[in-house]
Structure formats: structure tokens, C-alpha cells
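Its record is retained below.
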Amino acid sequence: MRVGVGLSTKPQSVAAVTEAVGRATVAAGVGKADAVLVWITHHHADALDAMLARLKEGLGIKRIVGGVVPGVIAEDREVFDAPGVAAMAFSDPTPGRFTSLLIRDLSERNQAAAQALATVARPGDLSVAMISTSGFQPKVFEAVMARSAGAGAITGGGAVNLQGPDWVFSEWGSHGDALAALVIRECDPTAGVAHSCRAISPVGRVTGANGRLLTSIAGRPAAKILHRVVKQARLDDADLGRRVLVAKVLGQGPLAVARGEFVVRPLLGVEDRVGALYLGGELEEGDRICFVLRDLDHARLDLNAMAMELACSSAAPGAPSFQLVVNCSGRGPAFQGIPEHDAVVLKAMLPPAPMAGFFSGLELAPEPVGPATVHLFSCVVAMGW
């Protein structure tokens, strides 16, 4: 399999997608790509149909998957809050090496979309999904994945359009409420997750919950435990929901949380009168949780640790054919304090290979202790051969 990456910062939309895909195709060393992943910033959203027509009719590409995103990544470059188009072009002589799908009306068909995603890929395959964030239901997705033993690896993330619908697209067209995915067959994928958050409390078991309302942990009011954790961490209530969040623990350690073995969920509000917390995701009695803190130093250390693990983890021979990055928009320049960070670090630490991706509204990654799971404030890297 031959893979190349291209980037364009031209403000003219059709010219930008032509340049990005053209550069990716040249970098792959082929005359025409068999499949492309394309990510565009919201500056180009109004011209999406014209850009798709250029890819299909002008460049003759048969498999196309992408979305409108807050920022794009190509090699060691990040384009955020400015016009950008990033592309990853694939070519392979094997028939059927690349498959795509588009499930429209996602908000009404979350279960069907998740089942299609779980079914289309086999072990050894990688599915790269683009999801309209506003119509996505993480609990439905994770329930389907938990029942889908033997499915291929799934990565990808949420399309976020700052000026309209959360557009995703494939060769069949664009849609503001959909799931699109490109399946790369037999690429022996390896994936890693780096978190922006670190645990600031021991693990506790949920003893009272009703959907997104968390009422008690270990038999005590959840809000009371949260306030104690915040005080012990020398934080204040202004950090609640902004830096202090809730994490569902996936590992089985009795107190501590191993690196990567949790998924972060937003903390939307605190109701001290009844001692409850309002969350951005659902919990059930018996779930194990902890409180976490968004922390820049930890985010950078965890990124380094994930990159080192990936560099040493795969048993596949030789360098990977590609590296796909799905990075939370909350890890962008405003969080880092500098224009570009994660792409530079990953490019320096990972094995030499074409690297591209996007900033997202949510991230999908295989867990070290379970099936594909929805993450927030994370950086996911998937490598394929």
C-alpha cells in the first residue's frame, strides 16, 4: 500500500482541495489515488459540494471520506482557526482494499450506524469514521461495540462546523447528520490514546445514578465528594466543568487509575441541594469513576508516553504505511499556549511514515481493556501497514 499526505492553506476552496490531494498523491508516488481521507476547516464548508465534485469528476477518486473540522494536521503542521485542507491519499492494486460507507440521519439511526461500522471491518482492518458530533449518541455506540466481538479496529472522531451543520461526506455526497467511514483492509492497525487529564481522586463506585444525573458515590452524595476533592487539590469552584471533569474507569485497579484506562465525560453542573452532579454522559450503578483535572504538563507527558509505546508496540515488520491522528480541539493552541505542539512531537517520536489527521469534537479509539470507546480531550494515533 502506498500512502501520501498533502496540505493546502489556500483560501479558494476548490483550488485548496485540488492542491492538498494533488500533493498527497504525488507524495504517495502514484498517478491517481484509489481512496482519500480529506479534512477541511469551516472556511470551506459552503463550497463542500464543489470540492466533492472536483475530487470525483476532476480527479477520478472512487473512495472519499472526510468532514468539516476545527483544524487539520499534516505531517508536523497544524492549521487551526484558518483556512486549511489536509488529505491522506491511498493506493493499492488489491481489489477491495478500500471500502466506504455513509449512514444518513444519524440522530435517528445511531444504533444502525454503529452496527454498520462494527460489521463492515474484520480483524486486521481499520475503520476511520467521521461523525456528525451533534447527532451522535456515545452510549448507543459503546453498547453496540461491547457486543461486537471480532470487529476490526475503529478510530476517527467528531466533525465540528463552527458555522453550521456538522458536515461529513463520502463519494455519495455530504450530510450534516451522518456517519461516514473509510475501511482500510488488512493493514494490521495499532492504536494509542493520550489523555489531557490526570486523576485527582481515588476510584469510587457509583451507588446512585439516573442517566446523566450522578447522585452518590460509595453511598455518599456525589457533590459532597467532588467539593472535598477540589479542596484537597487546592482548586476552586471556578474549575468545575472547565478543568475538573469526571472519568469512567475501565481498568480493574482497586484505587489508582492506570495510564489510558479511563474515558472522560463532561461535568455540566452541580446541584448541592440534593448532592448530585449533572454529567455530559450517562453512568449506571456499579460503574467505577474518578475525578480528573485537565492539565497541560500531564497532557504533554502522556503524549510522549503514548508515542514511545506505539513506536515499540507493533509486531508488524518495517515502518508503518501511515499514521492517522485524531486530536481533540481542546488540545489546540489555546490549551497549549503555542501555535503547534502535538503534531511536531508525534512526527519526531513516531516511526517515519506519512502522518495526517484533524482536530475533533470527540475521539474514537480501541481501549487497552475493551472495545472501541468514545473519548474527550484526548489524542488518538492509529498506525497501519
Notes: The chain is about 25% helix and 40% strand. Residues 2-194+299-384 form one domain. The CA atoms of residues 323 and 383 lie 4 Å apart.
